[in-house]
Amino acid sequence: MARKHDRAEGTGARLERSRRGLLAGAAGALGVLAAETVVTAQPAAATQGKPVILGQDNTGATSRTGIIATGQADGVFGQGSGTGTGVVGAGGSSNGVGVQGTGGSGGGDGVEGIGAGTGARGVVGTSASGIGVFGEGGGNAPGVLGFGGASDGYGVEGQGGGGAGGGVFGVGAPTKGIGVTGAGGGAGTGVLGVGGFAGGDGIRGRARSAAGAGCWRRAPSAAPRCGCRARPSSAAAVSSPSPPGRPRPPKPGSR
Length: 255
Description:
The chain is an all-alpha fold.
């Protein structure tokens, strides 16, 4: 009977030690989990070669981070919340470009903007004191090209600011360059001017020197139609102030 009692006490002691070991192990596991949670909750920027941390700015990169998709998938997709912007780019302090797009080798567009809803603009450019949108063509290609909507929309439209700002302003090249050129399609008019309601001229030409002509025309027929209205010539007309000259915008590569 004594042996049975001793065996029973030994078995109970082992069970007690096993329970204490399980409780200690569970407590240790919870402590490790809590420590890992605290560590991961701390805001720490990703370092070079480390994963990007979601929900915060990741600094410390010394080279470009790239995402290259295969097939027909998008490389990067960003969607803002509420009035937030989907993708934001900020250029470097030495006149860096905020967002740059390079089209594919098969004639892809560098940057494309699609407006959503009626009246929405596909691309918007705003500058505090500079040029809102700048375009430079290569070779003999135009710097800016616009196609109007199917319902007789204008290809390019400009609206002047203030009380006397011009809607569209063109500066020709230094040697016989034409400031603004218009070519009608079919029986369409090359250049159409509509005067203001308070007696404004539809089209006005002003010479900047005595050898120039304010309105000049060339037509193949003997009796062409001309919309230019002759004004009395005088010396004052030649010396009248010319439109304000605007400096040509710097090329993107000449910063």
